Amino acid sequence: MAGMISKLRLRVQRQTLLTVLPVLLLLVVIAFAAGAPAHTRGTDAEALTMIDRAQHLLERIGPDAAAEAFAGHDSAFIDRDLYPMLLDDKGVMIAHGWTATLNGSDLRDLRDVDGKPFIREALAGVARDGRSDVTYQWIDPLTGQVARKTMHARRLVLNGKPYMLAVGVYR
After folding, report:
1. Closest by alpha carbon to 138, among 113, 105, 121?
2. Chain segment 125-165, per-residue pLDDT in tens
3. Dihedral (C-alpha) 37, 76, 98, 134: value to the nearest 10 degrees?
4. C-alpha 49: how far from its chain's center?
5. In 3-state terms, what secondary structure has residue 115?
6. Cα 39 to Cα 59: distance, rounded to the nearest angstrom
């Protein structure tokens, strides 16, 4: 009888732990995201360094290998909320470091939550000046909330074809 009570007590404790643990984990994640400490944020300098690294890699491997090089959240090109994007000069996503499902999509007319055509604006700046910094409103992947973001973009020519390489910084 004592053995059955002990087993039942262990089972109840395990059930309680399996119920409480996910809730506690969720609360920790929510608390972390709500605070979003500064060290969880990429800086403008880090974004520009990532663009340099991505450019050097793409000049070596070419645009066709960009999607694989940027893919996955364990990629060397994912750093907190920083990730690279490579678009052709028409606005088609070649490689997106955070959301690979966007690869192949025409994003030229993509607008932020305020209706700003930020991709079109960045493409125009890159074509005109070789670089562009565009600020817009976007969903922050760390908090799930709309936040101000600045896309740092530059023109890149690979195999004789123009591209826009960009990394964004949440504010």
Report:
1. 113
2. 999 999 999 999 999 877 899 999 999 999 999 999 999 99
3. 70
4. 16
5. coil
6. 30
